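Narrative summary of target 7.
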Amino acid sequence: MDSVLRDIRFGARTLWKDRSFALSTILTLALCIGGNVAMFTIVYSTVLQPIPVPDANRILLMAEQLPKAGLGTADVTFASEYLDRVREMTVFEDEAAFSTADITVDIENVPQQVPAMMTTPSLFRLLKITPLLGRTFTETEGTIGNDSKVILSFAAWQQLFGGNPNVLGAQLRLSERTYAIVGVMPRGFSFFRPDVPFWLPLAFTDERRLKRHGGAFLYDIGKLKPDATLEQARAQVRAIDAANFERLPEVRDLRIRTGFYTSVEPLQGVLVREVKGKLYLLWGGALFVLLIGLVNVTNLALARSTVRQKEIATRLVLGASRGQVTRQLVIENVMLAATSGGIGLVAGSWLLDTLTRIGMDRLPRATEIHMDGVVVGMTLAVSFVAGGAVGVMSIIPALHANLTQSLHEQSRGGTSGRHARTMRHGLVIAQIALAFVLLTGAGLLVASFREILAVDPGFSSDGVITVATSLPEAKYAGQTEQRTFVNRFLEAVRTLPGIVSAGVTSSLPFDGDYNSSAVLPDGYVMQRDEVVIARMLRITPGYLEAMKIALVKGRFFDSRDTEAGPATCIIDERLARAIWPDRDPIGRRIYLPESLDDAKTMTEPTHWHTVVGLVRNVRLEDLAGDRSTTNGAIYYPFAQVPRRTVKVAVRADGDISGVIPAIRAEVARIDAELALFDVYRMTERVETSLQARRAATTIAMAFGLMAIFLSAIGIYGVLAYLVAQRTREIGIRFALGATTRNIRDLILREARQLLTAGLLFGAAGVVALRNVMANQLYGVRSADPIIVGVVTVTVSAVALLACTLPARRAMRVDPIAVLNQT
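Modeled conformation, tokenized:
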């Protein structure tokens, strides 16, 4: 132990004397470690760490999938299917269903819209969560008529009741309905949605419990018994699906054509399914940067070790063992790495905050992202391992050098050993290759992002404001009340100064609230393998005009399209091509089944809608294209099938800053208890939809620039060291008649060899990773020749620029001074 402490003290003195080396090493490693700390924290918190409930790895999510219907991957199930599984599955110790919805609550006498979770009483039992105060729901409270109970989050308890411990039994008014408070959740508890302040009982009607198919969409989770497996759960679900297939002949054909099956997956994987690949890719970029930084530090340490060969040889001659010398140098490098790790943790924390501000806060489980003991421990472990590895690699050439040669070489200014030179060259080649791969990936993401920015979304966002409100069931139970409110609201808004047009819709672009349905054109016979599925939007006259969605043919909705008028619809070009590729859609009819039960009959006259208009395609989910493969969209009159969630798009001329207060005033005048929520300018919605992609592109480009910068330093260091070690040779060449051009070409030839080898290995890496990149790109190929060409030129230019100073230094060697050296 004493010897280790002596080595630490000696190492500290040595590093203090060689402060330039120590500072360069610390800054390089700290920068690289900081990037890895930030990315590892995000990946660990969102992907690797279990969700914060007991036995999270045993919680499974079951969902109905219709792969041939073009709906993408679903996460929800029918209420009837959930009830079937509750009755028949034996692998779960508990099963629960829940859904989320927006409700209205008065906060400081101002109605506000907040999310709530409707859940079966079994959820809290499944999650093994004990309330801070009170209790959870009883089974009786999961039935109609007994469901007027509410559980508060800790934050809601503090905000609404000031943390009053006597809150149990108090009454709370939510969406025009009174609930009794029965419990308060502990601080920090969240599940599925971190912003939920209220939990309400999910109650099934007797009709729903008896209905054989369909119903509301719910999230269905189950917790496996300790001795049960995922495959056993999947087998039981398949058995239930098969039984339903036999006893529900009315939907059998449609299930076959849509490829119906029930997926059973670990809940944690489902939550991060959409972002896991991109996060791993960015973390890989951070690791590439760390490797490049380690190569740079190793090259610096090799150069320093070679300079210290005489010192090392002297210590060995005086009796020190090679193990002692190795330990000394390793300790020095570990000290540097440990210091770098500490600074890297601080830099990583700062970078994590920055990433959160530029879009990472929209990730699933974003509220759980934080640096903990695992992150700190991993960082320090990586630092110590890196320091040890650099120390060992840097000492190998010195320990294998000839002692006599080392003792004399320093004074003669000769060349270093071939082994050390080969190792340094190999490290620089690796740097160039890694930088090439990383910069190519960043370039592809930038090009992809530019392609997305150039996409025509099918609407104009300038001057558009969007708001939403939810009509409480107690006051707006019927369609007549809902229509009356919408008509009064639109009439008031359209009379406001500066308003050009306004309309109501069931779904706004990029808001994530979409419904889809089978679309059956007149004369359609269900014989094809796939069913045409379209997005369903309910709109009032004025919505398409407010969004400037172009009319291709026919007309927009107008005063004829009321609840008493004929059933009409407007379709987009994509849907028209899918069902009538060679015909004019105007005047033709489309059948919209209300459920799978009546998809085959096509007899109810109210389900037939006549196409009166054809409009441009609109990007509803993402500028890069809808994640599902639906066959376009169909719009039908809001008045004919109204809903309680009302979303409004308002287009105004000039300054629109005063429009939102004016809309709030009109809503308050109609119904003072209604809350406006989801208030955005449409340009903000578009910008928000791009935040995650912009953040990923920014991170990748930062890593790429860092990589090429570190590589340039590496090339410069190798060539500068080469010139310093070959000064005597260069002087002799001058004396024998070599020109400055000959000497320049000598240095540049070595640089070109390193660059060529690095680019070849880098190109091989790009080819190897092309499938990984393909899933993250839009509008560009994963090995786009233009991007690869630009990166090749950029890396070559930076590398050759790094050669300039060493080459000029070699050209200025004074042969007389060199030959006169002893």
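The first strand starts at residue 59 and ends at 65.
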